């Protein structure tokens, strides 16, 4: 650790390869200066040089040849002992630089022809659910598991913002280019960021700008009502209010990214209040932003959170599709409909939201949750790269059609970062943030290979005595950790068997008789939600035929989503030949064993191989993960044994 | 209503009968002055006179004949047209005065020979779970359902304490003579009441004193540790600290009542930390209080709140008995062991705590909960007089032995009062506070007759146009409301099927897999907790044989406690010939119907018969009660139908 803060995946050692070279940088401007400063610092440390007469090992140059320029792209080549990064724009040069850092010595080995590197997804954004004031229930960071906010503390902008700079550098190095500074649930103090406290946002923007990151702001749809008594998006005074307010924002922050809006969702205000559509609502803000090049991220997370659990006809999974598909084509060009990756809410296992494939005339961003609300809250190791990779690779029209990554104008992660010394509470959760950025840039990357990058940068050669052992250990602990987490928690895609409110730990019926629309319908005979067209809520019919057919069929439906789409008897036979009930028992016993093995593996690492504070933090969290996994196993198994009366085929203890 | 605050059971009209008489008061002192002021005010309003030459209709006199004087007793007689109240002590005169108020015109009708009125229970106390600071989770009043505290507001003693005087008058009029001003969970600010902020307590004591009410204070057992680094009750420095601190308390408040202590319970500090017993702990404080005549209320609510739900051998119901019976005889004379009426925690239906009968050498106070934590939170009508009457009349050794009321040195109610205009949130919940005082004075009173007193005082003749209709309506709504509440909530004594945390509304499994020791063990075959000696936790064996035998037997156990003592199949036949599962369905349908009838009855009251604000408040709460009862019915029935698979014999809808 450097000082009190862990350097994450950019310890000084990670820049050894570039820092020991003779480097030439051609071009100017803020982002090029950032690259120059990075290289100067690294070369100062590792003996390289920047500038001078050459010869050079590494050349980074802006070549403003093409029009229009391709903003983030860079071209990497190596010939005659010189590695060359060329970019149309400064941002490309910055990404090219960090790519060379990532390659390390491999960037200076042999020769390779010019290859353009272009992000698959243009807007790669982290959103912070950070509150300015400490919220009485949610605290400084809603669903935050890494301490306070790096931006805000107890009602004010932090006096010391040095971590924002370090954070921006980490984000840029994995390709993130946009950041929203406050919670989508906009409370009273936070609403003032847009107006009276814009200077705070500008101060953050100033620190993100050198790393090519634009700042966005969550705003309350009802903001104009304070002055006007109405927020009706079709009222000309409201339009003028937004235009005026937005003009002031851009006067203060010329490269402001835009607004993020959670409207008519879980109590947040929205256009429904005035009988207007979400398109009316989004377009009102979009019109104000358009002259300045800004965008609205309009969240599609709209559903009835006061559902009657007795009403089996209403299905929360259907809600986003039902609300938004009729509006396809009605949104302005600079509206980005932000859709959660699954139809419910960031569960460990959900099908991909059918809405993503149902808005051909609308720009869509996919939202994932790096903060581990439902995946262990950064007390459990749960590497989410494989989940996101599956989501991005999902082909809604079947293998002939484009994958989700090809449909998304943006990828958004709810940040998992706080003022914790390790940034993410669980040190290994840093990998999720890194993987998010990398998969947003290139969704076809193998998430295990991304993990390798992260390991090499974070603990890489020179930073540890036995990199091979460490790498093997980290892979053993992390590669399959999402599926391990899935095994000991809610089974077969049924979801939401968590403690209400804080969402940590098991409570099978916790949400069963609530207004939240999250049910499993377990009875003495079976479990699961019938979402078929034939006999259920019809949600399966929201997919294009390729998947609609698969999900509709209790036989074809993938096991891991069986209970999401079907209510089946406990004796239903899965594709592997086992019954649902035995699958529940088996996976829960196996999941706990796997966590035990993860813990043993970590504790077998020789002392000193990693920073002792980090080793201790991980060990302490693995202890908690094992305790919690045992609790999950015992509750889930006891619950289903009490309901089904079916004994475990292997006679293991169920309470 | 007078001004903004409802007069509860002492509207001016309630004093019409005494206020229209010629009154003589003989005696002096603070409490006699209180009586004199009451009578002067009433006579000023209704045409009577106080003093003068006579003849008199009403004579109140102190007659200090007997030694030692019987502090609270008064003797009432009427002869030759003169009603006479005679008392040894001023307190007796005060209680006699309020008794005459309660009798109204009947006190001045005919003749009756002298009869002494003596409280069955000496210490009749309300305890406030009021915090000085607003607690982040529990708010100003823990488990308070009537707004803020009448004493404290946002960290300080209220500037306007006029409601404390009005409250003291209400309490005295029903016989309460002790009051604890702060929460048994003593947080940091509240701990300072004992030391730096004693003036606040003295200010309250000054207002309670004219009504014969002594002030008590909840203290932290760990208080000495702030100065000494230890709270070990056997450390002489700790003893000296308590002696010193207590001396200062009495120097400030000469009639201070004593301390209330929740030790080693739900995270509160206690003697276990130093390996000492609860007798050691209680005696340390008692020794400091003894020279000044004060007492310690030492709560017996000690149990393992970090129980493993998998461990069926541990039974929270046993805990108080297990902890305290071995200490019988070890407590100082001025220690009062404060025992909750049931062995668990203020559930709608529990057996009487066996500890009450198991401490012959210890003074015991019984604690009930007027604040309706588990009985509808003052949103539901739930008149608790019948429950308390059953508790006080329970004879642990069988009908030959004394009842609980005969064993109790004190009766304590957790107050249901706040700064709400109606005092108790639900206006009809005022009756619970009134009934508490009256039953503490005379436990043999019929709770329905107590309700009559409360109705006559609150809405009595002259105060309403049709007292007969109003009385009939209130009886229809209130008399059986506790049993109605029981019908639509947790069945057959099983308890605790409430939402964790706030405890309002149903959640059958909410506490089932938690560390709180509150389980029902429902599975597909049956439900209930086996607490027998033969096959269960042995709790039934904590009772004297008369009841131990009854509770031990699945056939003799009263139906309403069946699931508290036994785990039975759903088909188990109750004493009325029905099965457990059908009983669950029937009572839940019936309970909702009863609430519907209560609501209809109330809404049929002609406008203007009671204060419109009160009528509206009650109507609004009855709407919520019906909504909630439906929710209870549907969840409980759905839960047990899903588990048992048994259909309702009458084919009613179960979800």
Automatic annotation (TrEMBL), chains A, B:
It comes from the Bacteria. GO terms for biological process: xylan catabolic process. GO terms for molecular function: alpha-glucuronidase activity; xylan alpha-1,2-glucuronosidase activity. Residues 117-423 form the Glycosyl hydrolase family 67 catalytic domain. Residues 424-652 form the Glycosyl hydrolase family 67 C-terminal domain. InterPro entries: A-glucoronidase_C_sf, GH, Glyco_hydro_67_C, Glyco_hydro_67_cat. GO terms for cellular component: extracellular region. PANTHER family: ALPHA-GLUCURONIDASE A. This is Xylan alpha-(1->2)-glucuronosidase. It comes from Dactylosporangium siamense.
